[in-house]
């Protein structure tokens, strides 16, 4: 069954003064600000300006009534954020940028050095800003998935096993020396293959759960899943 997610909490309680909704929205923003930073950079903003823009946008999003514009019928958090940012750029950024830098409270700690490095790795693809945003969104979901898997293995006392097995998530099977992995983990080659299969299965489950956190209904998950895979393939 489709469980209540952070985004569905936000959509069901759009009153900015509702504590649960505000906390859920801030949690989502903390996770998904990097795609917006990448979008701003692709539009031609310098790193410092892109940082200011992203900070200012989220400050206003969290403090003002912008959430009231969220449309449950178009219930993807990815779409909502990008549309809201475009409106912000068209209507408010020029005026906001003329104000003293830092005039609004900063709600989110932005590690823009990491965001900038990741943005630069995508420059060679020469994608338009919207596609840069969607690709970075998909990569953020993958990062969230990997963080959750790493935490699960660590809690089970298997952090080293995860670090060795995670290669099975990104490399072609034929390119992995399974015997070497098994030897390093102190298990048989058959056991290593079973462990890798279980990790891949759990990865797919967690990735779908992370996608579900950003859409409004169960019916949207499969379509969003396919869309993100296409973005990653570019």
| Helix/strand order | HHHHHHHHHHHH
The tally of strands reads: 0
What is the helix fraction of residues, given as a range? over 70%
Strand content: under 5%
The shape, in one word, is globular
Mean pLDDT: 83
Uncertain spans, ≥5 residues at pLDDT below 50? none
Q: Compute the number of structural domains.
A: 1
Biggest sheet statistics: none
**Category from helices, strands and their pairing:** mainly alpha
User: Over the alpha carbons, how many angstroms does the gyration radius reach?
Assistant: 20 Å
Q: Alpha-carbon distance between the termini?
A: 32 Å
Supply the number of helical segments: 12
Quick rundown:
About 70% of the residues lie in helices and about 0% in strands.
What attributes characterize this protein structure?
234 residues, mainly alpha
Please write out the topology:
Blueprint: H1 6-12, H2 19-42, H3 47-63, H4 77-91, H5 93-98, H6 112-122, H7 129-155, H8 159-165, H9 167-170, H10 178-185, H11 189-212, H12 219-233
Explain the overall architecture:
With 234 residues, the chain is an all-alpha fold. The protein has one domain. Helices cover 71% and strands 0% of the residues. It has 12 helices and no strands. It has helices at residues 6-12, 19-42, 47-63, 77-91, 93-98, 112-122, 129-155, 159-165, 167-170, 178-185, 189-212, 219-233. The protein is globular, with a radius of gyration of 20 Å. The two termini are 32 Å apart.
């Amino acid at each position: 069954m489709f469980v209540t997610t952070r985004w569905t909490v936000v959509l069901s309680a759009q009153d900015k003064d509702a504590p649960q909704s505000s906390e859920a929205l801030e949690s989502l923003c903390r996770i998904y600000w990097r795609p917006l930073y990448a979008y701003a950079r692709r539009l031609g903003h310098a790193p410092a300006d892109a940082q200011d823009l992203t900070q200012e946008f989220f400050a206003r999003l969290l403090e003002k009534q912008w959430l009231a514009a969220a449309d449950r019928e178009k219930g993807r958090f990815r779409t909502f954020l990008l549309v809201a940012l475009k409106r912000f750029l068209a209507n408010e950024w020029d005026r906001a940028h003329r104000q003293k830098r830092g005039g609004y409270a900063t709600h989110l700690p932005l590690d823009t050095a990491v965001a900038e490095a990741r943005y630069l790795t995508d420059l060679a693809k020469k994608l338009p800003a919207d596609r840069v945003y969607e690709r970075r969104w998909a990569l953020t979901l993958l990062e969230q998935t990997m963080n959750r898997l790493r935490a699960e293995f660590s809690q089970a006392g298997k952090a080293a096993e995860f670090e060795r097995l995670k290669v099975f998530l990104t490399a072609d099977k034929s390119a992995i020396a399974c015997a070497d992995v098994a030897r390093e983990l102190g298990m048989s080659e058959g056991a290593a293959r079973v462990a890798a299969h279980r990790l891949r299965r759990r990865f797919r489950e967690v990735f779908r759960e992370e996608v579900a956190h950003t859409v409004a209904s169960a019916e949207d998950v499969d379509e969003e899943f396919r869309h993100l895979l296409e973005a990653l393939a570019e």
